[in-house]
User: Fold these one by one.
Assistant:
Number 1:
Amino acid sequence: MRGSRRRLLAGLLASLALTAAQAAEIPVQSRQIVEFQGTLPGGRVGGLVWRGGIELDSPDDAFGGFSGLGFVSPEQHLVMVSDRGRFASGQLVYDDADQPLALSGVEIEPIRNSKGEPLPNRFSSDAEALDVIHRDGVAVGVRVGYENLTRIADFSLTGHRPGGPAREVPVPGWLADRRTNKSLESVCIAPPASPVAGSTLLLTEGVYDDAGDHAGWLIGNRDAGPVSYRGSSGLNPTDCAFLPNGDLLVLERGTAMFSFMMALIRVPADEVRPHNLMRGEELLRVIGGDIDNMEGIAVHESPGGETRVALVSDDNFSSWQRTILLEFALPD
């Protein structure tokens, strides 16, 4: 028995040491982005107010490929998920003007499967979406969506870092059977003010209903069922986030003439319900060098208490693309 206990203790210590090593802080350089579409912070761009941004770079080759974003504390700690099966956590730092200045304390660690082991291959590691799970207003975990091996899984938060074994969330068979990189792109959890509070909205990129609209699904105890989204011509939904009042923001992206395009659409709260076709108004459309491959969206509060819309790009681990984080506010 004593020998078994010693082996168990040694195994636990080794596991903790491995986890600590894998979650080591990495160097990340931040460059503040001041001008966007010819506008300085505080100016209007489309239906939003530009608040600033940062360009991020790191000599660590595990940094990049970010497709999902969520804030897990009132102090602007954030978590990003990459399409190579990794979590990146850190804290977004602001300057005295309440503009994003840097990302500090960045740690990267592998996403794990239900056995607590790192995901084994690229097919199972293609994480595309992330949202934060709250309980009584406190962040307690993150919900991650994957394409290729299409599924959803929850992870606990320890401090401000996600980890531990995956807890898989059931999804409808028609979605789980889609084994391509044109499947699940967006996962977002409805806030208390939403008519479908607590439900999780799933949106697809390359799966369509009979009318040709993007197929989706609501997971919830009371509000489960199919839903569709009619996007912009030439663009596809790549992520979503709810505003505190229950309105839905959908981030769309595409390409044109070797340039990236993006649009941000606001869908009224009462449009988000089972058996409905969701449509919204365009808040912002951008093409060209001020953006990159914008894939992740999150809503949070800045240190000054303003509700912000944060967007992050997926650089595809390519030398000619960038990892940028942009922030906007809704006009009063």
Note: The first strand starts at residue 29 and ends at 33.
Number 2:
Amino acid sequence: MKTRFAFVIVLFALVLAACGAPATPVATPTSMPEPTAMPEPTNAPTAEPASKNIVDIAAEDGRFTTLVATVQAAGLAETLSGEGPFTVFAPTDEAFAALPTGTLDSLLLPENKQKLTDILLYHVVPGKVMAAALTEMDGKSVDTALTAKQIAIKVDMGSVYLNENTKVIITDIEASNGVIHVIDSVLLPPSDEAATETKDIVDTAVADGRFTTLVSAVQAAGLVDTLKGEGPFTVFAPTDEAFASLPAGTLDTLLLPENKQKLTDILLYHVVPGKVMAADVVDLSSTSTVLGKDATIKVEDGKVFLNNTTQVIITDIETSNGVIHVIDSVLLPIQ
């Protein structure tokens, strides 16, 4: 008790000394400015990027040199530098490079200026549509600056896709006259005929551009007519990157004539009889393939995996004779 009382007295004495001591010099506002409170985080752009328009941002970014060149060739630079607001789905240089050989050169010819203009306008949506709004448009379509042409929006596994298979990879690059979302492929306006025509599985894979190896393998195995048949089929389609990740030499070996049966078996292991949509897949623990061997199905953190490690990255690409789900690695039949 005495110790506590002594401590209180000492503390009281120190307080009195502090109050009575002469003030020591401190930095005045002229020598050290008063700190200002940090603003609350917001979604508002910083002053610098917001002061530049869509064309200026694209030109300075470095990933859109082809897009900027096409915008200039089409005479749309002034339009997209205007008041807006606009939402631009901007393909990267890699997206343009993935177009079939000669396509871009052809579009840049003076006689094809209108076609190029139409394609670019198809990437522009009137108004400023932020990513949060896009994610609420699953299953809907939006009007574009190209008269009477719309873009279909799908939200799958937390990602946004346009027209089924063009992925939005970066969002909400704000400009003074709108916003840019970066996409991984070039959008092509649907023709009037295409709007009423659905391609089969093989034709859809060919037109997509990401399945060139799969298509070559299907041709080498002699399965083209089968997968163009009535079906319906569900195809788990590995991308070109999935085939490229196979051990060195594996694909070349599979494409040899003497290994045709082994290649055929692997491809048939990617095909399921019937049309199994994503909503059905997530309720299954396994599925039987055309090869007669099962593939296991696991749902983890909202993602679907086949045989534990192969992830389904895009779902429900509907065709006239079934559906395609895109996967990130090649499935090998379970022994």
Note: Residues 35 and 298 are 53 Å apart (CA to CA).
Number 3:
Amino acid sequence: MDISLDLLLNALVAGLLLGGFYAALTIGVSISFGILDIVNIAHPAFIILGSYVAYMLNSRLGIDPIVASIIMLPAFYALGGLVYQIYHAAFERHGQESLRGLAFFFGLLFITEVVLILAFGVDYRYVAAPYIGPSLHWGVVDLPLRMLVPCLVSLAMFIGLQIFLSSTFVGRAIMAVAQDQFALQLMGCSPARIKRIAFALSIATASIAGALLIVIQPVEPSIGREYIGRVFAICVLGGLGSLPGTLIGAMLVGVVESLTSTFYGPSWAPAVAFGFLLLTLALRPAGLLGR
């Protein structure tokens, strides 16, 4: 195959930008599944909910979608705390979180989708922002702002969460609750309270991820299903409980998908990306930065 250097460079850059977006989608799953061992299969539904909230504030009030997602962070944090409280009281406290808890999140996934369909229909919705459309040109490389801005926002969110988890008492308690809840109790902390805070944080990230999604592409209520397998695959690839690993895994998947789409066609991209995941796990079962 005669590969153009310009095309290769643009494919690599597009893959890195796509990986940054995937990282924003996955970070909430990395917290809930990777750290707390809660299989929140409904996380993409919360992301789509974040997209529609950004759409409403943008279309009715003219607020930038990313700014709107930041404004709605406290509401999504409270929603996450409420969902965890129900999950803990109904399933986790009775040791039934494995199968019945998974069914609970499947129910949330479909309920959220049905509510959005009843409220907005099945038409695609999009937002308006000054960075949707223009591109930056750096030599032969094109940087579409609708991909560059979400990637930069995603990196900022990752850095902020990593600093929080590694430098604050609550953050270190969140990391500890995944390793030894009894030791955490000896430190005077309630594991259920710490897990509620962590799960609420994971849902709060869905507000920003949803805004980034609707910036990149129009959305409709069922589009979240396309990302269920991908976000869990990236979480496992990076190593459960490792935010840096999640970021690296997302970048690798983005690059693999972009190169495959560019040179072989978009229909091959998911198959090659998941094949790359299986190959990596065969060589390193714990993931890239897993313990």
Note: The longest helix spans residues 5-35.
